[in-house]
Amino acid sequence: MSETPPNTLQYRFDGPEHLPVLILGPSLGTTWHMWDRQVPELAQQWRVFRYDLPGHGGAPAHPGGSVADVTTRLLATLDELGVQRFGYAGCAFGGAVGIELALRHPERLASLALIAASPRFGTADEFRQRGVIVRTNGLDPIARTSPDRWFTGGFAAAQPAITEWAVQMVRTTDPGCYIAACEALAAFDVRHELGHVGVPTLVLVGSDDQVTGPAEARTLVAGIPDARLAVVPGASHLVPVEQPAAVTDLLVRHFTTAWQPAPDATGQTVLPGVPGVPGVPGKPVPVAAPQSVPVAEIAPAVAQPQAAQGRPDPYEAGLKVRREVLGDAHVDRVLADADDFAGDFQELLTRYAWGEVWNRPGLDRRTRSCVTLTALVAGGHAEEIAPHLRAALRNGLTPAEIKEVLLQAAVYCGIPAADRAFRIAQQVVREETTPSE
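Predicted structure:
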């Protein structure tokens, strides 16, 4: 296989060339082999296209900075192959790519299946914390615990070969690409856009999925206008591997009945792969009906004052940067504690420290963390060191690099101040980089 260019993805086809294309998207830490059990049957009706995420399955290590970036690379790959319209089924991260396709490129999508997916995967803090662990310890801790996240206990015990396969699959992933994918999921949040998904959608989830379980699936079904829910009993997160026959059957039924035909040059809808046969609207997939889930009310945005002389108000940009650097939990706690007396000060910090200075392009965030830590040590602001140490780890500094920053600060800022900083850092690094059991 030739080297994959940075703007495309590693892929493979299965099935006859004349059939319509069905894309299968992988989850974080897996390869296209997670779909091996589905391909023989799917390839009888579709030309199955599978791809690997950057740095996964031996793919070149060109990290994808966001779900949108990976989606753009997928479309560039398809454009090179002349594939314009397709069905899409994606698991977890692959499901996020599917939602992105439906929202930003609906003209390319004939039908959609979202497996173990969510409009927001956990919290941003959780994924950035995982990135810190990988940056510090490598992928081995994540690899060793992946079967616990992906499979039910009974399946893992009964299928040791598959369990070991899962561990090795994660272990051989490029760490930098894995971290970038964690950052991409940390930033992914389309909860308020689901109503714009306009293609027939199957939402499929394992009944025992503890990562993106039935609750997240029902949120998708409640938000997407033409969605159906299927809960597969006795399966956890990697449901296509744990219950392959059930998943295959559901995908066949969904894409057979809910494929939106594309109009031909005369405007008539034609079934893909069957020239001259008029198409008919897809019928709902006969799967488990979704439970009634109330859609959460969207809180109105807090009005922010406009900056003088027509400059855009930096508050929202500052809040975004502040959350990305310090973490949602920290920012939520600080803002919640700000009463009427302190609220204006927190707005000032968000608007100018984070929206103006931290958001400037002249320095990257790693460098700004180095400067900030040094300044806090020099000023004796020990109470601010811990959150900015956590921020430094999220911004890509390793514990070894943080140690060097504090050693440098000790020379120029004084031994007592550096001593306090080292004691704080020792505790923070231990907390942030120790893998959970």
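Summary: Confidence is low (pLDDT under 50) at residues 266-308.
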